Amino acid sequence: MAEQPETSTVQTPAGDLESSRGRSLPDADTCRELLRQMTLIRRFEEEAGRQYQRAKAGGFLHLAIGEEATIVGTTSVMEPEDYLIGTYRTHGHAIARGTDPKNVMAEIFGREDGTARGRGGSMHIFDGERRFMGGYGIVGGNLPIAAGLALASDLKGTDEVTVCMFGDGASNTGNFGETMNLAALWSLPIVFLVENNLYGMGTAIERHSAVTDLSHKAEGMGVPGERVDGMDVIAIRECVADHLRMAREDRRPTLVEAFTYRYRGHSAADPEVYRDKHEVEEWRQKDPIESFAKRLVDEGVVADGFLEEVRAQVEEQVVEAAEFADASPDPPLDSLYDNLYVLPEESGGWYAVDERTPDPFRGEREREAAERDRVRDLHEAGAAYAEEGDDEGRPADEAQGGGASGSHSREQGRSGHPRHDQRDEDDDRGDGEPEDAI
Amino acid sequence: MAGTTSMRMREALNAALREEMQRDESVFLMGEDIGVFEGAFKVTEGLMKEFGEARVRDTPISENTIVGAGVGAAMAGMRPVVELMTVNFSLLAFDQIINHAASIPYMFNGQVRVPLVVRMPGGGGHQLGPTHSHSFEAMFLQIPGILVACPSTAADGKALLKSAIRDDNPVVFIEHETLYGMRGEVPDDEDVTLPFGHAAVRREGEDVTIVGILKMAHEAERAAKTLSEDHGIEADVIDPRTLRPLDLDTILESVRKTNRVVIVEEGWPHGGVGANLAALIQEQAFDYLDAPIQRVTGADVPMPYSKRLEQSAIPHPEHIVSAVLETTAGAK
Ligand SMILES: Cc1ncc(C[n+]2csc(CCOP(=O)(O)OP(=O)(O)O)c2C)c(N)n1
Ligand SMILES: [Mg+2]
Asked: Which end of chain B is more exposed for a tag (fewer CB within 10 A), N or C?
């Protein structure tokens, strides 16, 4: 482990963690780049949130504001050929791996130029070229996959390492225990990194995990761990670099527990009844961007006002990304079945049995031209519901009577995000209908 | 006669849980974020405050284990209601649902029962993409040993959930995410339950039978209205309300009258609810059919996120109207 000269400590709800303040900084270019990336991710996430409020994005939107140091500190010490895999809160992870923010934003908008051509959305960002092996909507689903990535690296005799990031809540899944055991048993080159932001959705860690010191949670399965201040980009960097080395050279999987915090709700529609506003404020005092910028100025690495310069730079980049995403077209309807299967020439049989495919399925009789038009028209008619919003031209009185039927309406919920539900117009709850939030 | 109150589906389900918890001490709830957070879809709003943390239990993210704990508690005499945040997450609990809950009563020769309810919302329309938007009615329907409920109205939601809780069998209770905000008249009488296996005939007609479940029960009604107004075609619209047991008699009676059938579901076509029902109908009433049975289903793909792609992958009234016109072509 690195030499540790004089140390100070950082207080977190988990206790005191050693600060990197006493340790020397990396070279000036690296420092500037760390700050730039964190600032870019912060501004990108703010913009994504704003666009969601404007209904440019649908579904759930999970922002990583506050968690930038954990992300950037980690990716900054990874090799280009290392794999990174994460959760549904990974716009920033992709950006930190080098994915163009334009394509991430376009995916959030569900457009043709998105990282997955609008198939995956905000929760499912992917960039294989940069070895960002995906965001995953199933909590804990990425852990076994990480073991498989590392297994492949091992079988191929490379020295690639897989970094697997997940939340404190995910440490309660069966996948966590099973993956830890497998990784240790097979000596897989993998670094597990738990982004402990103290909550799994609306449930505080002490209400969801019997062992709250997550760094020790996998020890019994053969994976030792270490805690680090996830708001301190330098501390994260050094810690993850150590663990990457253990994986790469010693073939030892380990667990890093990064203490971090999300300033925003779990997703955009979270009323945050489960935590105290003061707690959020306290964590904001440890802001990873502000504190790192201050340190850079204090130690003479950058001039006063550097952070403002960086902010102006990323502002332009993020605004451009939003404009790019908005200008990107919707994916064409006849792409609905793209990439469902690889279709080898020699295989026979029907792969799918739905008439929405614009061309007949293999094995299906040639459709007549009129039939094909009918199918295309229907396909269009279905897609048109996307434009009509939620008021699909149905009379409001359909909503009443015998519990028979509701009308579609577009309604502002607490967060102001327009809804797409079968609801009626009148709302007897003063504060509006509750928002769904996962 | 007792009156009714206008309620949203989520409020009706909430009332069913509250009333059954008041009525029976052995009823308790488990689920992720159902207590302090009051549920991802707010179905359990206020229940932790009313019944306390022992009976409204926030759980870790451990779907298979909380369903399994429900199985065990049910075997030992409790009546657990487990909430899974979406049907997609029920896939993590398939072992406990199929290998355990469904098999235990049979495997141990009836020495023990599993009066467990597992609630879960599914369906598309919210742009939640391929890990949060699916419809698995068909998968649950296939499993011998569990009952499957799929209410489409607030009144049915409340009455069926009460029946499910009182039932001695394990019940998979499927809700639809886009129906939670839908309002309907719900009987005030706390004793109103809805025994399983009774379909609702939502509309009557002579020309065609349309069977639809969950959100598609509503789309079927809308299609029937269009068919009547624009095409002079009158449809029987049937909502089975439970898939196991299935009220096949009501459906067959209608088929014998109309001789034509369209089955609508949001799930996938291969091995779907409609595929199963079509097989049953042709086995039982082949001689009464005047045209091939038509199915309207979700597209045969994982649910895409893009709003236009998603809407194009979900059945709409237009698809149903088109299928009905195919099956009635030449009849009028
Ligand atoms: C298997 C599964 N169960 C439940 C959910 C719903 N869900 C989404 S995020 C979340 C909380 C996860 O918390 P944590 O792992 O701490 O990650 P964080 O969101 O804090 O980054 C839950 C319960 C899910 N997506 N997948
Ligand atoms: Mg968390």
From this structure: N
